[in-house]
């Protein structure tokens, strides 16, 4: 049985007893370490690390990163307001959204930086907004990602302004007297340094077309290996390769371009664990499967259902030691939905896979690891009327602090008339 990544069996039992299950747990120490690694990303002419808060937008995490000098990317005006509520200065916030925020003018007046993701967004900004500086998000023509669901570049992606529309961008900038001073692209480039090199070159070619661009944001997409065989991006290796292109660009053009990176997963994925309880065990006979039913699932963790990915799942007995006997099981969630499977076939969300655990007993705990990113912030909240799970942060001194309470039934229905 593999050890838990940052919890101990005793801590799992204590947290489950104090706050119930399912419960998300985060580690401040791991959060700080990831942030420090990102802040050390090699760069030639300056670096801003911008956390993509869609990965996990809980206030305690935002405040921690804010105190470490990290900036933020918001994907809706609601995310912008969440940042403001947590005391983030507007100058640290960029808005990169699929939908035009209804209160964009007010946000821009407060100092939020706008990243136009379509020609329509750029034109709207140009027509009505007092600040003339703007960033543009480009779709550079290639994509990357472990599945179509996570690929955010290339012809099948609606994110950003298509690379062939540079002349239209220039025309809009001229028409509305806009200064395009930042360029952004996020294709989810992953772990392969060669992909980062290719995208850096493509992006710097676009920077060449816009003489006032002083900052190039390369997006996020740095991978965290969750399961055996999955790679974690080495930021130093990627950074050194990216930096070389910025230096060459300066030598060629005399322009020192500042670098921004915009990680989501890299900053938070590995710092999270989801503790749940085993509710039931069923089987479908000799030719079928043994199933473990848990009190979590897509209501707290949607990634297996959405992407066909697995997370490490480890057993912590409610009482006593890890049993010697093992059992091969399918782990499922509690939602009335056949897709609520925590062990799908990797790469095929519709497939069913098994894992082998020390023999689980009803009432035991399962710890689902690497759930800091795109879990609490991206799940099927309130489906089957399960309340939103609480979140706990383990401080550096080892103290487990509740940072979000479990939702109540009253809160779930409070807006109903
Ligand atoms: C605009 C933008 N920036 C950054 C990210 C962060 O990506 P990741 O979590 O893969 O680092 C995303 C995620 O989809 C994004 O849409």
* Structural class by SSE content: alpha/beta
CATH fold field value of the largest domain: TIM Barrel
Low-confidence stretches: none
Q: Helicity level, as a percent range?
A: 25-40%
Commentary on this structure:
There is one protein chain. By secondary structure, this protein is of the alpha/beta class. The chain has two domains: 9-25 and 269-404, Lyase, Ornithine Decarboxylase, Chain A, domain 1, CATH 2.40.37; 29-267, Alpha-Beta Barrel (TIM Barrel), CATH 3.20.20.10. Helices cover 28% and strands 23% of the residues. The strands form three sheets. Strands 1, 11, 12, 13, 14, 17, 18, 19 and 20 form a nine-stranded mixed β-sheet that branches. Strands 2-3-4-5-6-8-9-10 form an eight-stranded parallel beta barrel, surrounded by four helices. Strands 15-16 form a two-stranded antiparallel sheet. Helix 4 (77-85) links the parallel strand 3 and strand 4 (93-95). It is elongated, with a radius of gyration of 23 Å. It starts with 8 loop residues before the first helix and ends with a helix.
Overview features:
417 residues; alpha/beta; Lyase, Ornithine Decarboxylase, Chain A, domain 1; TIM Barrel; 12 helices; 20 strands; binds pyridoxal-5'-phosphate
Helices, strands, pairings?
Blueprint: H1 9-19, E1 23-27, H2 28-39, E2 47-52, H3 59-67, E3 71-74, H4 77-85, E4 93-95, H5 104-110, E5 113-116, H6 119-128, E6 133-139, E7 161-162, H7 166-175, E8 179-184, H8 193-209, E9 215-217, H9 235-253, E10 258-261, H10 265-268, E11 272-283, E12 290-294, H11 303-307, E13 313-316, E14 326-332, E15 344-345, E16 348-352, E17 355-358, E18 365-369, E19 391-394, E20 400-404, H12 409-413
């Amino acid at each position: 049985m593999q050890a838990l990544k940052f919890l101990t069996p005793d801590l799992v039992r204590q947290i489950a007893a104090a706050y119930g299950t399912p419960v998300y747990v985060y580690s401040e120490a791991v959060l700080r370490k990831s942030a420090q690694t990102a802040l050390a990303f090699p760069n030639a002419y300056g670096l801003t690390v911008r956390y993509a808060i869609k990965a996990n937008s809980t206030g305690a995490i935002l405040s921690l990163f804010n105190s470490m000098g990290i900036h933020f990317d918001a994907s809706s005006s609601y995310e912008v307001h969440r940042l403001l509520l947590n005391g983030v200065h507007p100058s640290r916030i960029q808005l990169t959204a699929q939908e035009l925020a209804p209160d964009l003018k007010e946000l821009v007046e407060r100092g939020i930086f706008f990243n136009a993701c379509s020609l329509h967004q750029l034109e709207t900004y140009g027509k009505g907004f007092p600040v003339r500086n703007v960033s543009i998000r480009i779709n550079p023509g290639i994509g990357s990602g472990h599945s179509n669901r996570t690929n955010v570049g290339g012809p099948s992606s609606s994110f950003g302004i298509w690379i062939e529309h540079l002349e239209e961008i220039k025309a809009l900038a001229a028409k509305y007297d806009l200064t395009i001073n930042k360029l952004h692209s996020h294709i989810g480039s992953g772990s392969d340094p060669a992909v980062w090199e290719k995208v850096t070159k493509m992006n710097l070619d676009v920077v060449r077309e816009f003489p006032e661009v002083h900052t190039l944001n390369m997006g996020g997409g740095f991978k965290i290996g969750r399961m055996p065989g999955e790679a974690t991006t080495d930021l130093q290796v990627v950074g050194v390769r990216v930096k070389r292109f910025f230096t060459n660009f300066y030598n060629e053009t005399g322009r020192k371009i500042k670098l921004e990176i915009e990680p989501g997963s890299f900053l938070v994925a590995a710092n999270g664990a989801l503790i749940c309880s085993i509710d039931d065990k069923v089987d479908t006979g000799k030719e079928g499967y043994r199933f473990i039913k848990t009190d979590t699932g897509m209501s707290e963790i949607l990634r297996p259902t959405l992407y066909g990915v697995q997370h490490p799942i480890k057993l912590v007995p409610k009482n006593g030691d890890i049993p010697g006997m093992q059992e091969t099981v399918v782990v499922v969630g509690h939602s009335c939905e056949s897709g609520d499977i925590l062990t799908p076939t990797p790469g095929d969300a519709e497939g069913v896979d098994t894992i082998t655990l020390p023999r689980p007993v009803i009432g035991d705990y399962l710890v689902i690891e690497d759930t800091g990113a795109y879990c609490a912030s991206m799940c099927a909240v309130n489906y089957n009327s399960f309340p939103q799970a609480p979140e706990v942060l383990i401080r550096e001194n080892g103290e487990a602090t509740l940072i979000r309470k479990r939702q109540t039934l009253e809160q779930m229905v409070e807006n109903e008339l």
